[in-house]
Inverse folding.
């Protein structure tokens, strides 16, 4: 079949289509030539009006900032200060809005909020509902607003329905098949279901970053098991001694675990046993409904020896009633690219794909000066690459985050905060390449790439004093800023003005203001102050990023040097972040570096014979 006539599907889906024995018998499994029609199921709530939302948020933050600017500096670490205004800093309470004394200091003109990025959201909210979260970065040739238009596919809707009906299940799918989009929807629906008893829902992931992305916590911390090295019995008695943990287990009715591929199989068994012991029930997982997702072809559990995957756990089959494989690939629309990635996923590359990957070593040229993000296997590589590029730009502006929260133990708080995407210290300079780490509206989303073009005092920006250069600016009007050399001379601290590339090749400039990233204890009331929070600009340097951090991201421009790849699944995770071949550069490609774990390949074969009983 000619590639162009096929819809983008994972290789496993095609295996199923050929063998007709894949996934749920009730699931609508498209043939490889049939596009899946998407049904809005259940009917989506109207997306929030971002302008109004932003305006309200803007007003809120501005009030807090203005209030804070009038206060003497509290004795906490310097928050959000730039080198030019070291002492003017808001308190976290002001910014989070928990301080009732925050007064309105000035009113911004109506257009201000329209193009400024300000919000008071938790990390979870940047990854909230499907309708708000998924249009990836700035420059891919995507014409439609996906934020407003993401409807669950039939496959996704089917799984959602089964979850709502109380089934324990595991769903997988290759990179970009919408596992995260579905999970966010599941979380949303379950949150509504348990709105009166929020403790009934446990939202967890195998790693801190993944947990942060869904507004949850690590499974270790949720379960109260520390490192979880003891036996299940010892861990259960440890939990019993901790009132909080024991109550959590007792109240939980549904447990979500994301990024299951990185959870050790032995730990899965321990959790399943602990659940039975604490719930005093012989039922699978002590009667707790488990909703598990991840892709075992991506990053494996951290292990010095042979990893034991969760699917190898003794109690896996008993705990998971249904297994589903999402088949429709959303991230990439080019069927050829989807094929190449799937071959890579299984570690079995055809000569044609090898040749195609080798061709991707060419330089990527874009006329908006935004370079591909380099993905590195190790964090040191990321830091040094970003630092070197930044230093070359000269005059730096530094923004120290302000941290707060009800957790007073500094080690514990630090551990939680270390999983926030928003950095503790952010240094920027004119021309720095940055990535937005939250969703703002249809065109500015988590993953959007841009370049700092100046620094502006929010007052000047609001008044339009800085407006001089309107060329190639989207949504500009009187608010556009010209790149300035160095900080503003205005009365307030300068914030970065970032120019983001848009899908249609145009640019959009925005003033980026700080916001609050929060970690909330499960079941906490909305009025309760967060357990840990960090106030920081929603930006990270984006010349380079770790593969680990990139898991879950969708990137339009990616450069990967495969020479340094050391782990199975790493090359696949890195390359599958790209939305198109045009936006992907691959250096040092050697077929031998593409490794899939033999145990996962084997398991996936047995998976394709599973007949779901629904
Ligand atoms: N039902 C849908 N309709 C339209 N787009 C979708 C849908 N589901 C997912 N997408 C889009 O597909 C892309 C990938 O989705 P998502 O990140 O959820 O995939 P994933 O399976 O979690 O990927 P990975 O395993 O690589 O992290 C996103 O840009 C998202 O917006």
């Amino acid at each position: 079949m000619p590639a162009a006539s096929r819809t983008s599907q994972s290789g496993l889906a095609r295996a199923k289509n050929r063998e007709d024995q894949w996934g749920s018998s009730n699931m609508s499994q498209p043939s490889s030539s049939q596009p899946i029609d998407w049904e809005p199921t259940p009917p989506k709530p109207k997306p929030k009006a971002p302008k109004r939302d932003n305006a309200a948020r803007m007003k809120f933050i501005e009030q807090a900032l203005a209030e804070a600017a009038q206060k003497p500096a509290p004795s906490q670490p310097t928050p959000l200060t730039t080198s030019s205004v070291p002492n003017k800093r808001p308190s976290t309470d002001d910014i989070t809005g928990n301080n009732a004394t925050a007064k309105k200091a000035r009113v911004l003109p109506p257009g201000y909020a329209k193009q400024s990025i300000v919000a008071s959201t938790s990390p979870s909210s940047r990854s909230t509902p499907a309708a708000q979260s998924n249009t990836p970065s700035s420059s891919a040739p995507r014409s439609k607003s996906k934020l407003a238009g993401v409807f669950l596919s039939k496959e996704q809707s089917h799984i959602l329905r089964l979850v709502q009906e109380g089934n324990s299940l595991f769903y997988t799918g290759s990179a970009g098949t919408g596992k995260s989009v579905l999970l966010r929807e599941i979380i949303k629906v379950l949150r509504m279901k348990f709105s009166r008893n929020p403790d009934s829902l446990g939202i967890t992931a195998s790693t801190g970053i993944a947990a942060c992305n869904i507004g949850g916590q690590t499974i270790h911390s949720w379960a109260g098991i520390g490192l979880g090295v003891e036996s299940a019995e010892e861990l259960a008695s440890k939990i019993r001694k901790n009132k909080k943990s024991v109550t959590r287990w007792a109240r939980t009715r549904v447990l979500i675990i994301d990024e299951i591929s990185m959870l050790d199989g032995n730990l899965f068994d321990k959790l399943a046993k602990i659940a039975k012991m604490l719930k005093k029930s012989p039922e699978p997982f002590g009667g707790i409904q488990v909703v598990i997702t991840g892709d075992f072809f991506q990053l494996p559990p951290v292990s010095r020896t042979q990893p034991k995957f969760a699917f190898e756990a003794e109690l896996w089959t008993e705990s998971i009633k249904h297994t589903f494989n999402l088949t429709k690939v959303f991230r990439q629309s080019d069927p050829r690219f989807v094929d190449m990635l799937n071959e890579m996923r299984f570690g079995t590359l055809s000569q044609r794909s090898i040749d195609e990957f080798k061709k991707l070593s060419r330089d990527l040229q874009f006329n908006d000066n935004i370079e591909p993000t380099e993905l590195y296997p190790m964090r040191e590589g990321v830091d040094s690459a970003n630092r070197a590029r930044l230093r070359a730009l000269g005059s730096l502006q530094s923004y120290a985050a302000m941290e707060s929260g009800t957790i007073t133990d500094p080690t514990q708080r630090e551990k939680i905060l270390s999983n926030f995407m928003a950095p503790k210290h952010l240094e920027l300079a004119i021309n720095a390449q940055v990535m937005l780490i939250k969703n703002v509206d249809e065109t500015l989303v988590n993953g959007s790439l841009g370049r700092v073009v100046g620094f502006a005092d929010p007052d000047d920006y609001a008044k339009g004093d800085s407006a001089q250069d309107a060329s190639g600016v989207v949504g500009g009007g009187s608010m556009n800023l010209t790149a300035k050399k160095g900080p503003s001379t205005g009365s307030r601290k300068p914030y970065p003005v970032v120019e983001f590339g848009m899908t249609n090749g145009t640019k959009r400039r925005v003033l980026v203001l700080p916001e609050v990233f929060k970690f909330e204890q499960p079941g906490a009331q909305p009025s309760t102050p967060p357990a840990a929070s960090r106030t920081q600009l929603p930006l990270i340097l984006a010349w380079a990023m770790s593969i680990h951090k990139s898991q879950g991201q969708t990137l339009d421009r990616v450069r990967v040097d495969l020479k340094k790849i050391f782990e199975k699944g790493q090359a696949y995770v890195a390359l599958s972040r790209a939305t198109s071949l045009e936006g992907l550069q691959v250096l040092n490609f050697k077929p031998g570096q593409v490794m899939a774990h033999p145990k996962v390949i084997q398991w996936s074969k047995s998976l394709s014979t599973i007949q779901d009983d629904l």
Q: What stands out?
A: The longest helix spans residues 50-70. The mean pLDDT is 72.
